[in-house]
Fold this protein.
Amino acid sequence: MNFRQFLLEEKLSLQYHENLNPAFWENDTLVPGVREKLLQIAERWRVFSKIPENAVIDIIFLGGNANFNYTSVSDVDVHLILDTSKITKDVSFLKDYYLDKKNLWAEEHQNIKVKGYPVELFAQPEEDPIRKEQGVFSLKENKWLQKPIFDPDYSKIAENKLIIDKTDYYKMKINDIIESKLTDLDKIEGLRNKLREMRSAGIEEGGEFSFENLVFKELRNSGYLKKLSDYYHNLEDIELSLENLDEDF
């Protein structure tokens, strides 16, 4: 094998490899055909999301499949980098709008894959920071903006046991919510927000391999974040529905 798992327990899905994903890269060169297909998908999403063509500064490929920490469940993350001044002054509204467009596209196009990996699209303002330690490849310019750096020194990565214990704790909480049929939407959303904030704080303080981000990724890779999200949205649908309406109402 040409990789080493930095989390050796079979229980965890997180991995760290010595080479970039060979499905996409020959050494650090993008495999022929991948760039063209990703640009085609990005253009289709731009039109779908009604993004003005002149507002797109760049289209970048990032995430696990542009780094050494990819897994079999990693997405192909493609982001359109925008000059938001050419769209609106309300950047906060714009972010919410494009997040909704991302989710709607994902619902309607669940079978789009490149080299067997699902493609996840997003739009972000030019001023939004990109983590320094991650690989970022410009699909428009066909070149690396930031090359990923392989780090053989695992001393900054949290001990396996700590990650296992923390992920088990949150998996138990999620299972308890579902098995007890909890109906308090505020409490469920509180846990979802806590997990998101935990990840953001971890990345800000310690980067891609921070303890908090690794816990979040393991919860995502193992399907627990989706499990919680699906339960929340199903409960929300029930709360907003009305049945057996009295004819005299």
